[in-house]
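Class, carefully examine what follows:
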Amino acid sequence: MTLKSKPDDAAGKASTSTGEKKRPKRRKRREQQRAIDTKQAILTSALREFADKGFEGASTREIAERADVNHRLIGHHFGSKELLWKATAKEVFGTYVIKQRERYQGLDGVDQPILLRLMLREFILFSARVPQLHRFMVQANESANERLSWLIENHLAPGISLDLLLLKKAQEAGMLRDGDVMHLRYLFIGASTSVFTLAEEYKFMSKQDPFDNKFVEQHIDMVLSLFLTEAD
């Protein structure tokens, strides 16, 4: 009996040991996922707070309240309000740039008129999904400072070259109105985003919801008709 019990004991110990190893790994994965979720909640809340009030007016305590997290976690994950602002900019611009590049690569070989329409359409759709981006930019432009310089250098300037190249090719193809392409880019941004940036005002004045899917599609068609000179 004693001889038989030893292998059973060994197997039990091995099983217990394996279980003990798995549990810390599962616990660690849960903790990591919880940290990721917490950081994302803070960034989402921070975008809204910075977009509404700017850097100076934004409160990290209100950001924490919006995110439904302990205020100390902002310091733990981001260190300071300044670093949180930069992380927020990186998150929102990074998301758009990644989508833009993936879209552009996925359209390799597509005819120029179709490519331009799809890329401009993608920008307007993103503006409707994340209207805080343009409010964030308006707030950042309120005063020329190091944050704006950092934002331009790290997130605006790198992506503009692709925009200008696309617009220049469209002009050469005769499907985009003449004019300085940088100026046209900013005109397009203004026309595309104003109804989303000023959504509450637009709702009151027009009695329409600018985020309604049907409205967004109509808005896309109208904006493109203002800039494109050639029908698809």
In short: The chain has two domains: 1-79, 83-232. Residues 1-5 have pLDDT under 50 and may be disordered. Residues 203 and 209 are 6 Å apart (CA to CA).
